[in-house]
Amino acid sequence: MIYTFFDNNLTMSEHIIEALGLSQITIKDGKVVDVTEPEVEYCPLFDHHRGIKKLTKEVIAKNIQFRIDDFGMCTSNRQLRMKDFLNFGISEILSTLLEKNEIDSVVMVLEGCGTVIVNEPELVQGIGGRVSGLVKTSPIPELFAEIGEENIVNTKTAEINQIEGIKKAIKQGYENIAVTVALAEDMDGINKLKAENPDVNIYVFVVHTSKRSADDARKLFDGCDVATACASKHIREIGDVESIRTVGQSIPIYAKTEDGKRFLELRLEKIGEEKPKKDNPDLPHPLI
């Protein structure tokens, strides 16, 4: 079946993502070859947008293959740009901040390239709005031209390394840098770069937070400007108490700092007022 792993010595590219219920999906040469059992059974986003009531290996494999066929995820046919559809997510916030010159660059992750530096709103939306939770990737040279080889941390390996991405952005002269971060271990390095570069603003957007430990959630939240809750039990416990501005209920986005608060409000200005609060919003299940 489509979600059963197979070995192919001729494979040219391999990509591993965590998505749809924190299932780990392996993609080789444009095909889904392995899907692990999801740890979250229900995600309100996929229910509301795709009508998916329960996440299973079969459903996940079908959705990921659809993305590959539709916009070229993890292939040389990847469509990198996307218009703003007025949603409220991390990539949408970042795109708005670029438009308003609040930031001048975003350090993020793209299949086939690894960590990249992006300064165009439609690229940020097309990269981050379509794929999240990239664990491992391998080079897809056909994508390098649109991103710019100078904006890729390592074209030979497509390394995912946000610290090196920030360093590269600073060397290129960027002064207001946003970075997406999923790993608590990156926070020490980011704080060090902040101390070493007092004239550079580094804004931290914490993403892909499901199943983070209590300690990691604490470290991520303490070091961020903005964090998304995903299906994280611990991020929600912290954010619900400490956030100075929260947008959304099913998948809340929290502001930890005054900068973060301003960023959320700038996005709200663009798309209009928040949706009315629900007494019993749909939540991911289980929270992990």
Helix/strand/pairing category: alpha/beta
Shape: globular
Query: How many H/I helical runs?
Result: 10
Please tell me how large the radius of gyration is.
Answer: 18 Å
What proportion of the residues form beta strands (DSSP E)?
15-25%
What is the terminal-to-terminal distance?
Answer: 28 Å
Rounded mean pLDDT score:
93
Number of strands: 11
Q: Considering DSSP H and I runs of 4 or more, what fraction of the residues is helical?
A: 25-40%
Which stretches are low in confidence, meaning pLDDT under 50 for 5 or more residues running? 1-11
Q: Note the main sheet.
A: 7 strands, mixed
- The figure for the number of domains is 2
> Strand-and-helix sequence, N→C?
EEEHHHEEHEHHEHEHEHEEH
Spatial strand arrangement across the major sheet: 5-4-7-8-9-11-10
Fold and architecture overview:
- This protein has 288 residues and is of the alpha/beta class.
- The chain has 2 domains: 14-71, no CATH class; 90-271, no CATH class.
- The protein is built from 10 helices and 11 strands.
- The strands form 2 sheets. Strands 5-4-7-8-9-11-10 form a 7-stranded mixed β-sheet, sandwiched between helices. It has a 4-stranded antiparallel β-sheet with strand order 3-2-1-6, covered by helices on one side.
- Helix 3 (90-99) runs antiparallel to helix 4 (121-128) and helix 6 (162-171) runs parallel beside helix 7 (186-196).
- The longest helix is centred in the N-terminal third of the chain and has 15 residues, at 57-71.
- It is globular, with a radius of gyration of 18 Å.
- The two termini are 28 Å apart.
- Mean pLDDT is 93; it is low at 1-11.
